[in-house]
Amino acid sequence: RPAKIAFLRQLGAALRRSDRYAVLALREDWLAALHAYRDLLPTRLRASYRLDLLGPTAALAAIQGPAAALGVRFSDAAARKLVDDLRQIRIAQPDGSVLLQPGPSVEPVQLQVTCRTLWSRLSPGTAEIDVPDLAAIGDVDQALAAYCDDELAAVARDCAVPERLLRAWLARNLVTERGLRTQVLRGPTSTQGLEDRVLAALIDTHLVRADERRAVAWVELAHDRLVAPLLASNRRHADAHLGPLERQADLWDRQGRPESLLL
Questions:
Q1: Across the strands, what pairs with 90?
Q2: With a threshold of 0.85, does the pTM exceed it?
Q3: Where are the extended beta strands (E) located within the chain?
Q4: Among 50, 147, 155, 260, whose Cα sits 20 to 30 Å from the Cα of 57?
Q5: pLDDT of 22-50, one tens digit each?
Q6: For residue 220, which of 207, 233, 229 has the smallest C-alpha distance?
């Protein structure tokens, strides 16, 4: 608390000049904690604006606006289909099943990745993108799986760790057996056996995000929509790079290393 008071006093002194302004950005669940310090700032934080998550309407504008600027019409039906696909979330049901349904927001990075992939596959001279074109140039799952491929390969190369290790760590620690997102507690130097420098690189790819609550840091996949593409990417990587013995060893490990599967 003394450090916070000292910092905000300095900030308040700097902002008392009429020609100096500041924009402060913070998560809304931390906003209430600033109430006790408002008197230290000249405006007492009177001017505020809530920057909401990317909702369906804003996502439609983000899809159609850039295309229109380059003379390509992205139809309403195709854009809505893309938005609805990107905002799918998984809801656990009382009977143990998992229900897919549209959520309230879209992850901006996933929207960017998907649109970039679709745009790169357009035929030269395309003037309009409609619903049938989406299937012809690749669906959302394929675009996100390709993004997982590229980013995991880059992290493995840059951090000098086996890509198989990264993929196994993500699937084992951030996805449940029922295909739902889950969280792990972030450690000071490593998290569930993964070095923090490698975890930081994964966070930079926006495949993984870190969240701090009650002074404790948690790690999870960035969005429900990444679960299926990640698992599909992992399967494709295993088929291409793992031999029968390695796949059986992975199965044995995921099932708790039962003695019944030993030779």
A1: 100
A2: no
A3: 73-74, 88-92, 98-102, 128-129, 184-185, 190-191, 194-195, 208-213, 216-221
A4: 147
A5: 998 988 888 888 888 999 999 888 888 88
A6: 207
